[in-house]
Structures
1.
Amino acid sequence: MSSTLTIHHLRKSQSERVVWLCEELGIPYNLECHDRVPPAMLAPESIRRLHWSGTAPVIQDGDITLAESGAIFEYILAKYGNGKLVLGPTHPKYADYLLWLHQANGTYMPAVTSVMLGRMKGDDDESPTQKVMQNRANANLQAMEKQLGTSAYLAGDELTAADCMSVFGLTTFRLFIPSDLTEYPNIVAWLQRVGQREAYKRAMQKGEPGLEPMLAAVPQPLAQ
């Protein structure tokens, strides 16, 4: 089925979320994949030409070009979702849904990205800034672990867009900042549940062919 919706996916990046979201919704889309540019492994010029942000994900839908994961999620869910993967204001888990939909990019990813960049420039993990950011990331993981001890997914026993937004930071992002999730068994069990979803498998196969999803507590290192 043809579609006007095109997802521009930067390999090994958060734009995998958008591919997964569309697979879960069962909507048609075109997928354009872009490779990172060594040695800094930044987005290529092909992404930068699409949107002033110069980052992925980017979608195009007719005359519309849109960036930012959260904005893209809202756009796709509102225009194409038909009420799937969202919880409304009257739902008892609505507040949980909103929190976890925004937590990944609002708090967790900025914290772990700051730690990663600090390590890249040689900052000591015991430096004040590194400790603050690592503690912030740990607090998020502890809260997520507690949440997933009460339900199969972040906003109840059914998958929502909040899960689609949150998985990347605990899987593919660990290519850039390895981390051990052994002390978070509920998170690991959640990742395993996600890994069994056919829509997730399709999304990863399309967007990251050859990359084994990093769903284990201690994922295997990539082959050299």
2.
Amino acid sequence: MSQRQSGNLTRRAFCTTLTVGSVSGMSSSTTAQAETFRLGGEVAAWRGRAPQSIAEQDNPTLQVEAGQQYRVVWENVDGQPHNFVILDANDNTLSKTEIIQEQGATQTVTFTATPEMAQYICEVHPTTMVGEIQISGGADGGEMGEDGGVGLRISPITYLFAAAVVLAVISPILFALLLFVIGTGDRTRRVR
């Protein structure tokens, strides 16, 4: 008898079948229709496994349609602590799983795609295990560009990084100009 059938749900069985998101009231036929993305989680990146459009890609973009049900099934490949978190464009958590560390353990995240969804990460490794969620369709399917495509969402951290780069380039130039002006002023005083 399986761990589930006996009525005793072990920690491993729980982690293996963990479902996060708005699943209350969903029938089994709705769940069966949900498209499934399969990923492998390791410190270096999320590794796409299925469908074929994301297979073998590191941190693949998950293309979803607003209002549709989706599942992400991911496996802990390296035995390091990982979890799966869906964020909006302002880095607010929309959905997340518990952190699991057991190599080979899997988690399933079921969600309805919404226009707010922007990316998915591992909370423990947010700089390497990070992928985009691209939303299309639906009544509120994101901002439409002039060409009819979904507009690009830029996170506040990206703006901050761009400002830092601009300052890093401009500040030495401004400093050199300041030294030139000060140096020019000193020479005119000495000539008199």
3.
Amino acid sequence: MLSTKLSATVRPFVRKASGIGALRSKHTVPDLDYDYNELEPVISAKIMRLHHDKHHATYVANLNAAEEKVLAAQAKNDVAAQVALQPAVKFNAGGHVNHTIFWKNLIGEKNGGGQLHSSALKSAIEEQYGSLEKLSAQVNAKTAAIQGSGWGWLTFNPAIGRLDVITTANQDMASSVGHVPLLGIDAWEHAYYLDYNNVKADYFKNIWRVVNWKDVAGRYDDAVAKHNSLKN
């Protein structure tokens, strides 16, 4: 028997229809907080335009289309169709969420990219990994080991109440395995190939120069605060 329940990963992205033709708000591609060329020479304006305006936009368009089909299937009580649509919703929702985090995780060097200032996050990194350099080496090694496409992540792991380094395949979200994403590194070829060709190790090395640590530190503070509130 087919289950009528959507997976935990998919469920937040599908709004239950209240009737045929029920309205829903559509997902949109978020604007960048910086110009396309601000991340140069680490990431070129050409890649940023292609990545943001084409790849991310495609995930959003496909997510909206998949959601419309799910709502139509719900209205018809077509369980088989709802189940069949779950992979499309999961993949495109992941593409949308992961890239939305990615854009916020980046900032040009002239505007503070790569600078990790004193913060709770900096203290946690030094306590757990010894230094930012050692952390970045671990993230890069794990991300480079991905077979195919995926993401490297610095996360807050609520299960242990500490930072963690993980990878996810394709467009799977860190939240799908119970982690809170803090910093994501896109390991899909479209993120680097025009600039680095097949030398993705250089891309992984250089991207740390444009990490927006203020954004990452804010995500860490929020994750810790939520974790502590749930314990009390």
